[in-house]
Amino acid sequence: MATPSVPRMVNVFVRISDNEREHISTLQRTTLEARSSAFRAFLGQPVANEHDRDVTLPSGSPRALRHVLNTIKWRGHHPEMFISITGMTFTEVVGIWEVCNMISLEPQRVYERVTAHIIGHVSHNPATAEIVNTVHQAMRPSKVSFDAEKERPWRAMIHQMVWDEVHNSTPPAEKAAIQSIVGDNPDLRQAVNTKMADLRPKKDAYDAQSAANRTRIAAERNAAAQRGRGQRGRGQRGRGQHAGNEEDRRWAQAREVRAGTREWTPQLGWYVDRLRR
């Protein structure tokens, strides 16, 4: 009878100090290699003991690493595997993204969902020092090898930060904290200046057009009001003239009644009586 094969295992650690590492997870090698091209490449280098490998990662949040690797461990075989980020803070979600990027999680769509969540958050919330610093440290171009796709959250963050600035919507204390971070990071400062040169003229042009529109609308309303007053005045004069003409017509008809050329009517009775006096 053949001896059952023993699955090859990988013990993953993360370096937390020069002389200390923390155990993150132990996974089957086949499962890990199927979901991570980075691990697949590293484990492809042969060692004496292929059945029980230790891998120590140089950096990463232990909590985020454990969440991602344990998801692979228990759900990696599932074709619709996804990384749950429900209930996590923004900083924790960015930590998950960093792990997915570091291990080159596969397929790409699994962590594109995390990317989309980060972009949505920075695009629909006011910029804060925490958001700016967290996204810049994790996703600045030099950190992601100038990969345009991976830079998208970083560029969305810059757009929102500058948008808030040109619209004066950032509280003073938060603004000072953000400016401090920008001042300490030349690449961030350059990107902010470039975006400011793009958005500031657009905001100024919008403000100028809005002011012109308000002036035009006020002038149109004033002109309409003047036309209305003029029409009311002409209407009153017209009604007075019409009343005078009607009065003259009835006196003429009353005289015709007196002369016997028109029949008497109740409407003309008062006028006829006056002519008799």
Descriptive account of the structure:
With 277 residues, the chain is mainly alpha-helical. It is built from 10 helices and 3 strands. It has helices at 29-35, 37-43, 62-75, 90-102, 108-123, 129-139, 148-166, 172-184, 186-259, 266-276; strands at 9-17, 20-28, 52-57. It has a 3-stranded mixed β-sheet with strand order 2-1-3. It starts with 8 loop residues before the first strand and ends with a helix. The relative contact order is 0.06. The model has no long low-confidence stretch (mean pLDDT 89). This is BTB domain-containing protein. Residues 221-251 are annotated as: Disordered.
Helix content: 55-70%
Q: Give the uncertain stretches in residue-range form.
A: none
Q: Biggest β-sheet, characterized?
A: 3 strands, mixed
Neighbour order of strands in the largest sheet: 2-1-3
Q: Give, in order, the helices and strands.
A: EEHHEHHHHHHHH
User: What is the total domain count?
Assistant: 2
Sheet-strand content, in percent, reads 5-15%
Count every helix, treating DSSP H or I runs of 4 or more residues as helices. 10
| End-to-end separation | 146 Å
Average pLDDT taken over every residue: 89
- How would you describe the shape? elongated
Please outline the helices and strands.
Blueprint (H helix, E strand, L loop, with lengths): L8 E9 L2 E9 H7 L1 H7 L8 E6 L4 H14 L14 H13 L5 H16 L5 H11 L8 H19 L5 H13 L1 H74 L6 H11 L1
Parallel strand pairs: 1-3
Antiparallel strand pairs: 1-2
Helix pairs in contact: 1-2, 3-4, 4-5, 4-6, 5-7, 6-7, 7-9, 9-10
